[in-house]
Specification:
This protein is of the alpha/beta class. The protein is built from 11 helices and 12 strands. The protein folds into 2 domains: 205 residues, Spore Coat Polysaccharide Biosynthesis Protein SpsA, Chain A; 138 residues, no CATH class.
């Protein structure tokens, strides 16, 4: 099957050359590479032109600056010839077996497949690997977690259109938005237990500038300054209690997913027996990474940011988190209330 590979880019020619080289080195050679130059300058255009001179499978699509990959991916989908679609961001890289291993697992029952990955810093330092049971997919995971980056995904032609396609949200989150809408449409993802994608994580990555519009309230306070102070103070909350609570929540969740027929285990790896996967999932617990002040229903709260694209997704994520993280949320509420009372007592002792 021919694969159309979609690569949005904007003026990172050195990284783009590496991404292009990884695509053209695929063992599955029946492909086309559509590079969408997002208002790019001569350096980027020349990098693509040189790649095309060397390999006719490369195609260039030039568009005026969008600043958001969602409309670029939609444009490329309309121009694609392949029966399957894969994505690669210009700062990521594929190993030669990437497309072949994903195509082998892709069918109408699981029309979206996802590879394992390693994450590296901008300097090339290995940060972490995602593989094995960590790749397990379930509808609840798709709602509560971004799950995967586009560079790890291959799907059959026409799949995004079943859920409305890539949406230009103007704020990022377009990939998670599409994954959860596909999940809501009844489409299951099939993970593949092969680390065939290398992803770059750096401070200039676009996700660091994405604003958060939705929150899960933890504790109500009297005003904005109080909410900000309390959120900051909670960063020093007893992390061991939170870790223990999060561990217990994830362990219980893992036990349920082990027995759930909707859980999709990665191809190429054995399904974990007993509690091993639940324990492995729980071992990732680090407590809540972030709290923030948020004005909800006209009142200020200390809250957990929900990085969701719209209100429907945020409501779905809140339902999953309240169901699956009750111990953590209870302890956070208790700690916030205690810190709030302590702050009131301290203020009362300060002489006028």
């Amino acid at each position: 099957m021919k694969v159309s590979v979609i690569c949005p880019t904007h003026d990172r020619p050195a990284m783009l050359r590496r991404a292009i080289a990884g695509v053209l080195a695929q063992e599955h050679a029946d492909l086309e590479l559509l590079v969408i130059a997002d208002g790019s300058t001569e350096g980027t255009l020349e990098a693509v032109a040189q790649a095309r001179r060397d390999d006719a499978r490369v195609r260039l699509l030039e568009v005026r600056r969008q600043g958001n990959p969602a409309p670029l991916r939609d444009l490329a989908l309309a121009a694609a010839d392949g029966g399957a679609i894969a994505y690669v961001d210009d700062d990521d890289e594929w190993l030669p077996e990437h497309l072949g291993s994903l195509l082998a697992a892709c069918d109408e029952r699981h029309p979206v497949v996802v590879s394992g990955a390693e994450y590296r810093s901008g300097d090339g330092e290995l940060l972490r690997r995602v593989r094995g049971p960590q790749l397990a997919w379930h509808p609840e995971i798709a709602v509560a977690d971004p799950y995967t980056e586009p560079s790890r995904v291959l799907h059959l032609r026409g799949v995004p259109e079943r859920a409305g396609g890539w949406r230009d949200l103007g704020v990022g989150l377009e990939d998670w938005d599409l994954w959860w809408r596909l999940t809501a449409a009844g489409i299951a993802f099939q993970p593949v237990d092969r680390v065939t994608t290398r992803l770059t994580v750096s401070e200039t990555t676009r996700r660091h500038g994405v604003p958060c519009a939705y929150f899960l309230p933890v504790h109500e306070v009297g005003g904005e300054a109080q909410a900000a102070d309390l959120a900051h103070a909670m960063c020093g909350a007893p992390q061991e209690r939170l870790r223990e609570a999060t561990f217990a929540d994830l362990q219980a969740w893992g036990d349920d997913l082990l027995a759930d027929r909707l859980t999709v285990w990665p191809c190429g790896g054995a399904q974990p027996a007993g509690r091993r996967w639940a324990d492995a999932l729980a071992q990732t617990a680090t407590g809540v990474a972030e709290l923030a002040p948020a004005k909800l229903w006209g009142r200020w709260h200390v809250a957990i940011p929900l990085w969701c694209a719209d209100a429907a997704h945020s409501r779905a994520a809140e339902r999953v988190l309240r169901r699956r993280q009750p111990r953590q949320l209870q302890i956070l509420g208790d700690l916030a209330a205690a810190a709030d009372r302590s702050s009131h007592l301290t203020n009362e002792r300060i002489p006028a």
